[in-house]
Amino acid sequence: MKILKFGGTSVGSVDALKALIDVVKTNLDKQEQMVIVVSAMGGVTNQLITTAENAIKGIDFSEALADIEKRHFEVVKALIPVQQQNQVLTKLKLFFQELEDLMQGVTALQELSPKTRDAILSYGEQCSAFMISRILKTIHEGADYLNTTEIIKTDSTFGNARVDFEQSNFLIKNYFEHHKDSLIVATGFIASDDQNRVTTLGRGGSDYTSAIIGAALNVSQIEIWTDVNGMMTADPRRVKKAFSLEELSYTEAMELSFFGAKVIYPPTMIPAFLKKIPIVIKNTFDASFPGTFIKHDIKPSSTVIRGISSVDHISIINLQGSGMVGKAGFSGRLFSLLSREQVNVVLITQSSSEHSITFAVNPEDAKKAQALIQQEFELELQAGKLEPITIEHDLSILAIVGENMKKTPGIAGKLFHALGRNGVNVVAIAQGSSEYNISVIIYNSDLTKALNTVHDAFFAQLQKNLNVFIVGVGNISKELLSQINAHHAYLVENNLINIKIIGLTNTKKMLIEPAGIDLANWQQSLDESTEPADLNKFVSEMKSLNLPNCVFVDNTASPIPSTLYKDIFKSNISVVTCNKIANSGDYKQFADLRSTAQKYGVDFLYETNVGAGLPIITTLHDLIISGDKITKIEAILSGTISFIFNNFKGDVTFHDVVKQAQEKGYTEPDPRDDLGGIDFMRKILILARNSGLAMEAADVDLGAILPENCAKAPTVEAFYQELKVSNDYFEQLKKDAEKQGKVLRYIGKLENGKASISLQAVGMDHPFYALSGSDNIIAFTTERYCETQMVVKGPGAGAAVTAAGVFADLVKVGANQ
Ligand SMILES: NC(=O)C1=CN([C@@H]2O[C@H](COP(=O)(O)OP(=O)(O)OC[C@H]3O[C@@H](n4cnc5c(N)ncnc54)[C@H](OP(=O)(O)O)[C@@H]3O)[C@@H](O)[C@H]2O)C=CC1
Ligand SMILES: N[C@@H](CC=O)C(=O)O
Ligand code: NA
User: Fold this and answer.
1) For 773-801, what is each residue's pLDDT tens digit?
2) Domain residues of the chain, as ranges?
3) Which is the closest atom of ligand 1 to the Cα of 579?
4) 460-485 in b/e burial notation, b at 16+ Cβ within 10 A?
5) Ligand 1 within 6 A of 638 CB?
6) Is the interface score ipTM higher than 0.95?
């Protein structure tokens, strides 16, 4: 035998009830014996509460009751054959007559006692259970109605009555002993006290009813039929990647449902746990969902936590003062007071010095709790032994839950790392001594971000989302977006990372789509955007979206975005950039950006600042952190100039080779930056700084390639013109080198704290002689690499290799989350 419990939505409409009939039929076909427990039709309990509360004030209730009646009648008319409808409608009318009498009593007395309230609410379940029993009669002759006030006995705590299991078990067994062949449809939620007055089992109590009956009858399974796919790893309205749990233990289910997951009423677990009866949560509206199983002997979980629960709105109350230290009875007095006055305490944390206690309550109880405490501890407050009691609002609880957490080190570290890295401020912390749960109190405004980031951190086998905002959509970004688009499926399929481009801007338009911009059409979407570019607004919208794992990418050559990096770091957002400006400006700014990123626990990655995608910054960093000392760096770091000297051969003019370099995407947006040596100077400066030298741009001894007329050309067009004019100059340089069997190379050197860049003619014996295309080469001489240098060589400019370097930096940020 098993129990099938259907919640409000599952009995709330004709379509839902058709699905219910299908579920019951499937079980009948399998000759399953079952007891059905139902809630009131969805929304009816709330309607009854409002109507009763209005009735106290004398507000007319007839329309509201007629409304509820109509919903039941519509179902009867749709699902019961005409000739059988009358008898059902008559009984329902009788229920509504009794309900009306009760409401009249409320109006007359201008009072709604908990006892009357329970009696009124019971009609929600009575009507639905009776109606459904008659609907099921159309498919099974033995279908019958049971009012559980006859079989579940409780004390007289109206609204949240305590079950007398001894009596109830006897009555339940006895009843079902005499109804072996019936298909019983029982009311959830309601019971009665020893004077046969109606009591209720708390909101969500229908689940509890099913466990009480299930445990008494020792059934094989309790099925909770609801409108979602079971218990999930987190609230799916806030965490898109939340997924349904296959199974979990009773304790885990209890912890998860205590904070938030409203799928099952926590007390339900106890009778089932004691009898080891599995509970299965099923979806009435999705027959393909196999269910979430809550049971003993679950498979070992592959993740350390089972799920994350959350409570949206709570307030905290803080008590502190010397009067609490060492006073054994203090907490006892405090919490018995709150319990006596029915203030539900959701979470408690106490400092080990016993100097302060913080506890969380529902916001509607906060003022009441404060007043009660003030009254109770008046003397202590007056004597200054207790400081004024403070309340904080607009908070949420996030709790990670799982039995595997027990005795597994590093879990709290992971939780706080994820929260800290994303700038989520933790207001208070609590861990149950069972180690099944770590709860943190955070601001409401951070809840969605926190849930997503913690979900990503713990369910690591799932790929993490990286939310990316890109400024600049030129040469490099176009290629980057196309690479991400092409490689996205691979990254997702291999559970590595899900890169979402949320924002794009150039100097004309901007586009922000929180769900992610479609990369197949990004250009069109940006062109069609009606939002004019405004970098400050772009950044402030990025911050206010408050997305987890967020990265700002600067793919411009402009100095403006770099003025915003510091502020971006302070919002716990990482920066990835191929723009060299921030790192080659004032040394103070460079140092400040590095330390700010470090302080806020975010990444500042700029591998492409030197040698495009070649691993140069990373290599330098690895040498230094592993304790090596850089003694010399020799390098060719201008892809453009390398290309020019590798191709300035035969009849081709210098002007034409420079044009080719620009067309191939090797040059800076302004090629004068390359040919004038500024770009190279920036790179050698960045290397010097990353080697630990506090060097400024003016400290680099920069040898020129260009004659003065070219170097001083006021525009790019004029520059090209001057290159033509100076053709003989460049030809002569080339010939002089060729005469000696040498080639021209623009070489940078960093040694003894000094940096220089100069044009040299080098022979075949020189390691930099044999280069092609836009090759860069960098030779590190270090204490460890002293006999033979460590050399990195390869194409050091071009959209494809640069975008690839930015892409790799993005994936690194993702991996660090
Ligand atoms: N080419 C290469 O091999 C390498 C290049 N880099 C670096 O890559 C960077 C980008 O180069 P590249 O793609 O060729 O440059 P592009 O000129 O092709 O693109 C620059 C983009 O930045 C936008 N932009 C400029 N200023 C702003 C601003 N203030 N606000 C918003 N958007 C702005 C431009 O907008 P709009 O279109 O409206 O003008 C354009 O979309 C440079 O810093 C360069 O040093 C680094 C390594 C190698
Ligand atoms: N314009 C640069 C591109 C890489 O930083 C170069 O030519 O090296
Ligand atoms: Na690089």
Assistant:
1) 999 999 999 999 999 999 999 999 999 99
2) 2-227, 307-458, 464-612+807-816, 617-796
3) 43
4) eebbbbbbbbbbbbebbbbbbbbbbe
5) no
6) yes
